[in-house]
Design brief:
Number of domains: 2
CATH superfamily of the largest domain: Aspartate/ornithine carbamoyltransferase
Radius of gyration: 19 Å
Largest sheet: 5 strands, parallel
CATH architecture of the largest domain: 3-Layer(aba) Sandwich
Number of strands: 9
Structural class: alpha/beta
Strand content: 5-15%
Distance between the termini: 7 Å
Length: about 300
């Protein structure tokens, strides 16, 4: 039984196959198709952290495929009474759950796979600080739609130390002939391995000539201290002036939630170069493709 935990072991072929399958779930008008392929499958969404886009898109994806969806409310479960996550998931697995979509602040899926007595498939909806594979795949899909995936100059700017998105995206894009530059406040980029990826602390330099600009949110909830917001905006906000330094047809991305006026300006968010809402729409189609792949094994 295969699980989707990270993109580290994915091949270029697997990524392109998922993008192709996801595109088949979008009609000519850009709407998501409903195809009752798995009416006998039960999907459990188990989110131990807040989520809007990922949680709702998985639910829509599963229902669009005809699945039965069980939304687990962690705050009103036996977890609040002291039951361990392992025992909770082991219990749920006995209820004929076919696939569990799980989000957690720690890396727990590997341990759960080894702990539960009745096997079920796990798909990561973001765990720990390293993995958000379905976001990585929908971001690759969005870039593929607009630019292809080869010979691109990509900039990722923001809170890299706490970003699952950045980790999973770079795991996926490494299979293509494109370059990635990282940028952000030095206090938010302490874990960057500059021997593997280029790091440039000056955003005005980093953004020059880029085809893709991906801005990331400052994740205050994962930080011990605070970053001065005024200085961050001055040095690292993607605004209209900075965006003009990129290639004229560059696209702007953001995994959300977006703090308009901090990571990017409202004008940039609403600009023709922004594909942020495309990412949201592609999230449903890509997650339909992922569920189809892992429910078919």
């Amino acid at each position: 039984m295969k699980h989707l935990i990270s993109l580290q072991d994915f091949s270029q072929k697997e990524i392109l196959e998922l993008i192709e399958l996801a595109n088949k779930f979008i009609d000519e008008e850009g709407n998501i198709k409903s195809e009752s392929i798995f009416p006998d499958k039960r999907i459990l969404t188990l989110f131990c952290e807040p989520s809007t886009r990922t949680k709702i898109s998985f639910e829509i994806a599963a229902k669009s495929l005809g699945c039965h969806v069980i939304n687990f409310d962690a705050s009103n479960s036996s977890l609040s009474k002291g039951e361990t996550l392992q025992d909770t998931v082991d219990t749920l697995a006995q209820m004929d759950i076919d696939l569990c979509v799980l989000r957690h602040s720690d890396a727990v899926i590997e341990d759960l796979i080894n702990h539960i007595r009745k096997p079920m498939t796990f798909v990561s909806a973001g765990e720990g600080a390293f993995s958000h594979p379905t976001q990585g795949l929908l971001d690759l899909m969005t870039i593929h739609q607009h630019k292809g995936l080869e010979n691109l100059n990509i900039l990722i700017v923001g809170d890299l130390d706490h970003s699952r998105v950045y980790q999973s995206f770079t795991d996926g894009i490494k299979h293509f002939n494109s370059s990635v530059t990282l940028c952000g406040h030095p206090d938010l980029c302490t874990k960057v391995d500059s021997s593997k990826l280029k790091y440039e602390s000056d955003l005005d330099k980093a953004i020059e000539g880029k085809d893709i600009i991906m801005a990331l949110r400052i994740q205050h909830e994962r930080m011990d201290g605070q970053i001065d917001q005024i200085s961050y905006i001055e040095d690292y906000q993607v605004n209209e002036q900075r965006l003009q330094k990129a290639n004229p047809n560059a696209i702007l991305m953001h995994p959300g939630p977006v703090n308009q006026g901090i990571e990017i300006t409202e004008a940039v968010y609403k600009s023709k170069q922004s594909v942020i809402l495309d990412q949201v729409a592609n999230g449903v189609a890509m997650r339909m493709a992922i569920l189809t792949k892992y429910l078919s094994q």
